[in-house]
Amino acid sequence: MALLVDKARHQIRAVAQWLNLTLETPGETQARILYQPLETALIRIAVDLRIFNALSGERNGSKSLDELAAVTKADPALLARILRSLAAFGAVRQTSANEFKATGICETFTQLPLSDGSKFCFDVAGMAWQYLPEFLRKTGHKEPFDGRNCAFNMAFRTDEPIFDFLIKNPKFLEVFNSYMTSRRQGRQSWLEFFPLERELVTGFSNKGNAVMFVDVGGGYGQEIQEVKKRYPDLPGRMILQDLPDTIKQITAAPNTETMAYDFFTPQLIRGARAYYLRNVLHDWPDTQCREILQRTASAMKKDYSKLLINEWCLRDRGSSVYATFLDINMMADLQNLVGIITW
Questions:
Q1: Which positions are tagged coiled coil (predicted)?
Q2: 209 contacts 176 by C-beta, under 8 angstroms
C-alpha cells in the first residue's frame, strides 16, 4: 500500500511540475534557472545562522525579526534581507512585515544529516560543479575517467582524489559522512524487497565467531542498524568497515563491530555469509571497481558467501532529476559515471 501511495505522489508531482513549466514565461524560466544557485547559498547561510532551528516547531506561530536576531546574533537589517529571500522560495513563511514561521523546507534542514548535506554540497561538491564547464572545455568535451584530473581538482587546485582530500580535511569528511546517512531518506529500503531470511539466514553456519554481514565502506553504519532494526534476532556477527578516519568518528554503533579497512587491500574478514556494498562502486572507474570486487571475492567461501551490491543505475530514458544529477556530480568530483541500463 505504501508503495502505491508513493507512486501516486510521484505522479502528482510530475503533473504539477509539468503544469508549472507550461505556465512559466521565458523571463520566469531565466530567473528560476540562473538565480537557482542563490537558493543554495541562502540555505547555507541559514544553516550557519541556525535560522531553521530557531523557527522549528513554530509552524502554528511566528517569531519576530528581533527575536530571530537575538538568537542568531545577526544584524537585523541583514537578517531581514535573508529571511525575505528565504520566504520568496518557501524555505520559511513570512506572516507579516517582520514575522516569520517554519515551513516543511525549514523543518527538513533542522535534521543534522541534511544541514550537513547543505554544507558539503555548497563548500565542496558545489565548487566542483562551478568549474565543470571550464574543465570540459579544456579537455575537449571528452568522456573523463581520471579521478585525479577532474573539475574537483581544478576547483581546489590539488592533484589528490576527493577522498584523499577529505581525509586531510576532517571538517569536510565529517559533514560528508553525516550527509551520507541521509541519502536513503524517502526511498524504498532494499530490505522491503530482498528476502534476507531466505537468502542469508537459511543455510547460515552459526558456529564459533561466524560472521553474518560485512558492510564494506559502510560509513557510520546506518545500513547495519536498519538490518538489525528489522531483524533483531539475526544470528552471527555484524561488522562495519570503513577508512580509519571515518571509523574513529563513530560515536555509537550498538551491537556492531567496527573495523578500519581500505577496500583496495585484501579483505580481512574471510568466509562471511554476506558482503554488502552500498553506493561504493559508483565512486570508482571500472578498473578500480574490479579491484574492489576481486578483493572481496578472494575472501568469499565458495557456495556459501554472497555478495550484495546496492547501487544506483540510470534508465536509458526517463531517469529522475536526482539520479541524473548524481551522475553529473560523479563526473565533477570523481570523473566517474553511474551505470546506465535499458529499462
A1: none
A2: no
Radius of gyration of the chain from its Cα atoms, rounded to whole angstroms: 23
Helix (H) or strand (E) holding 102: strand 99-102
pLDDT digits (tens, 9 = 90+) for 148-184: 789 999 999 999 989 899 999 999 999 998 998 887 6
Classified as helix, coil or strand, 129 is helix
- Taking the C-alpha atoms of residue 249 and residue 174, their distance in angstroms, rounded to an integer, is 8
Residue at grid coordinates 568549474: 131
Is 282 labeled as catalytic in the residue annotation?
Answer: yes
HEC letters along 204-231:
CCCCCCCEEEEEECCCCCHHHHHHHHHC
Cα–Cα dist 72/53, whole Å: 10
Locate 264 and state its grid cell. 583496495
Could you write out the DSSP letters of every residue in 142-210? PPP--TTSSHHHHHHT--S-HHHHHHH-HHHHHHHHHHHTTTTTTS--GGGTS-HIIIIITT----TT-
Determine which one of 127, 282, 288, 306 is catalytic.
282
Distance in angstroms (rounded) separating the CA atoms of residues 174 and 176: 5
Q: In whole angstroms, what is the distance from residue 336 CA to residue 298 CA?
A: 25
Other beta carbons less than 10 A from residue 230's beta carbon = 12
Dihedral sign, Cα of residue 87, residue 93, residue 97, residue 98: negative
- Which of 117, 113, 112, 92 has its CA nearest to residue 102? 92
Give how far the C-alpha of residue 98 lies from the chain's centroid of Cα atoms, to the nearest Å.
Answer: 35
User: pTM here?
Assistant: 0.81
